[in-house]
Amino acid sequence: MSMSVGGDTGGPVSEINVTPLADVMLVLLIIFMITAPLMSHPITVTVPTANPKSTEEKAAETPPLDLAIKEDGTMYFQDHPVTEAELKSQLAVAAQKAPQPELQIRAEKGLEWKTVRKVISDAKGQGMVHVGFMTTAPAKE
Fold this sequence. Notes:
By secondary structure, the chain is of the alpha/beta class. The protein has helices at about 20-40, 50-60, 85-95, 115-125; strands at about 65-70, 75, 80, 105, 130-135. Strand 1 (about 65-70) and strand 2 (about 75) form a beta hairpin.
């Protein structure tokens, strides 16, 4: 703390003490001087560049797979009713496609979670990697 020398006012001093700020800045400078040489990599590797158009085209070529599950447990794969065995076989075929399509699950609100969990584990067991859930957007006020 700095003190006022002279004068008859005993109030607080409104000057800023910059000594702690200078100490912190010097410590940071030393830390950066030590760590900066460690950040450069001695081995240079040429990495491939991404082509955003090709990924968009691939996504457009493979439409997602739609699976609707009603509250009573009946399943509709691509709007056709299927049994559990038929669903597994169709998911196995879809998992073998070159850009694998995404499986989008639309389950009714009152459906038990164990049914959805079973479908997800079956899809993963058949080799499906991309599984998503479809929901409705919240109502705007």
